[in-house]
């Protein structure tokens, strides 16, 4: 625990803040036996704010839960399978539900190619959340995030329990990557290299805004290369894994960072925490884009304040214009999926 905690705290200052530790939250992970689910659950087990870590998957969660339950941190760990009302037990009284359930990409696939399989998985899990933990914060990792977040929102609306402050698309991996890639390019410390990334979570909808990092000067070729790398960083991992899936470990790190920030804001009363996340947003309302990721201040009820885009260079404006039609298409696809019956 000390080892994990030190490592993680060094990388994310608030990840394990214990100053006002209340040890009160139940966090459910759906898809907990998977490539992301297992390391994410491990990192969450190290957070002392979590009193109950509840793991749900189609298989293997009893084993994963038994294993994690030996770690000497406060969280009780329970494993649930679909039989015996497992999903209901996993979700009841949850404060936060993290959803990495769904299939990952193989080389040559886009995230949208996952829609046919993952849309139904996310819809069904969101339906269970709306029934068993309607007030929980829902953190969607399953791709395509640009569409799965609207799916969760539309399901919650059907049950009259939608609160836009509590449904989040997890886009943290994009800023984690941007920070790392820029620090490699600049020979700077990744811990001190903060990069703004806005938009959605796929290809051209991922918009790094390097101009907003004070002191960062990129020549044109680095600017273009780094922009492409941030937009298509996921493909690097898919290619390297060669059919074995997509990013799992870096995603677990990013997912834990976001979950821990939300716990600090909602449970530990820490003020002023901001994270990028894809939420229902007015930032691009004039362009008809209903969901968008910018820097969001987190508070006791989830989304406290959605920051605007800030100033963009002409190049960043071009990236934004390229993202808008794709985002609108992805959002509409999620909406239509829920309302097709
Ligand atoms: P994986 O196949 O290793 O794990 C997915 C898990 O989900 C499996 O254990 C599977 O049994 C489980 N699952 C499937 N249907 C389920 C259901 N109905 N209920 C509960 N569990 C179910 O995949 P992975 O590598 O962990 O990736 C999971 C998802 O996360 C993929 O869609 C991937 O594209 C996405 N992802 C998102 C980001 C991001 O930045 N948001 C990053 C990486 C991966
Ligand atoms: C990522 O960005 O790594 C994830 O969205 C997984 C993928 O399909 O690339």
TrEMBL record:
Biological process, per Gene Ontology = malate metabolic process; tricarboxylic acid cycle
Keywords from the UniProt entry = NAD, Oxidoreductase, Tricarboxylic acid cycle
Task: Report domain Lactate/malate dehydrogenase C-terminal positions.
Answer: 171-338
Q: Which CDD domains match?
A: MDH_glyoxysomal_mitochondrial
Q: Which InterPro entries match?
A: L-lactate/malate_DH (IPR001557), Lactate/malate_DH_C (IPR022383), Lactate/malate_DH_N (IPR001236), Lactate_DH/Glyco_Ohase_4_C (IPR015955), Malate_DH_AS (IPR001252), Malate_DH_type1 (IPR010097), NAD(P)-bd_dom_sf (IPR036291)
* Gene Ontology CC entries for this record: cytoplasm
A single GO molecular-function term is: L-malate dehydrogenase (NAD+) activity
Reaction equations catalysed: (S)-malate + NAD(+) = oxaloacetate + NADH + H(+)
EC numbers on record: 1.1.1.37
What positions does the domain Lactate/malate dehydrogenase N-terminal occupy? 26-169
Q: Give the residues the record marks as binding substrate.
A: 105, 111, 143, 177
The record's active-site residues are 201 (proton acceptor)
Any Pfam family hit: Ldh_1_N
For the ligand (NAD(+)), the binding residues are 31-37, 57, 118, 141-143, 251
Q: Which family does it belong to?
A: Belongs to the LDH/MDH superfamily. MDH type 1 family.
Assembly and partners are described as:
Homodimer.
The name this protein goes by in its record: Malate dehydrogenase
What broad taxonomic lineage does this protein's source fall under? Eukaryota, Fungi, Fungi incertae sedis, Zoopagomycota, Kickxellomycotina
């Amino acid at each position: 625990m000390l080892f994990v905690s030190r490592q993680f705290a060094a990388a994310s200052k608030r990840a394990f803040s214990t100053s006002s530790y209340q040890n009160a939250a139940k966090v459910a992970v759906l898809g907990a036996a998977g490539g992301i689910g297992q390391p994410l659950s491990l990192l969450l087990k190290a957070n002392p704010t979590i009193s109950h870590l509840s793991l749900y998957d189609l298989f293997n969660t009893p084993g994963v839960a038994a294993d994690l339950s030996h770690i000497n941190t406060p969280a009780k760990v329970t494993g649930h399978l679909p039989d015996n009302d497992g999903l209901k037990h996993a979700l009841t009284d949850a404060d936060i539900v993290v959803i990495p359930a769904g299939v990952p990409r193989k080389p040559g696939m886009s995230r949208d190619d996952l829609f046919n399989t993952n849309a139904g998985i996310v819809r069904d899990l969101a339906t269970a959340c709306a029934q068993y933990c309607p007030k929980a914060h829902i953190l969607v990792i399953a791709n395509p995030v640009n569409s799965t977040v609207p799916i969760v929102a539309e399901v919650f609306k059907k049950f009259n329990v939608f609160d836009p402050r509590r449904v989040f698309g997890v886009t943290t991996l994009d800023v984690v990557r941007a920070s790392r890639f820029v620090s490699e390019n600049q020979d700077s410390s990744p811990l001190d290299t903060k990069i703004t990334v806005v938009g959605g979570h796929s290809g051209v909808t991922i918009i790094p805004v390097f101009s907003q990092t004070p002191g960062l000067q990129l020549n044109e070729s680095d600017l273009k290369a780094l922009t492409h790398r941030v937009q298509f960083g996921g493909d690097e991992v898919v290619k390297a894994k060669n059919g074995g899936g997509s990013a799992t470990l870096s995603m677990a790190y990013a997912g834990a960072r976001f979950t821990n920030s939300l716990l600090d804001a909602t449970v530990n009363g820490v003020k002023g925490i901001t994270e990028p996340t894809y939420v229902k947003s007015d930032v691009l309302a004039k362009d008809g884009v209903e969901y968008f990721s910018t820097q969001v201040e987190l508070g006791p009820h989830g989304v406290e304040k959605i920051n605007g885009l800030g100033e963009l260079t002409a190049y960043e404006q071009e990236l934004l214009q390229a993202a808008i039609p794709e985002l609108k298409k992805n959002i509409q696809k999620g909406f239509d999926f829920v309302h097709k019956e």
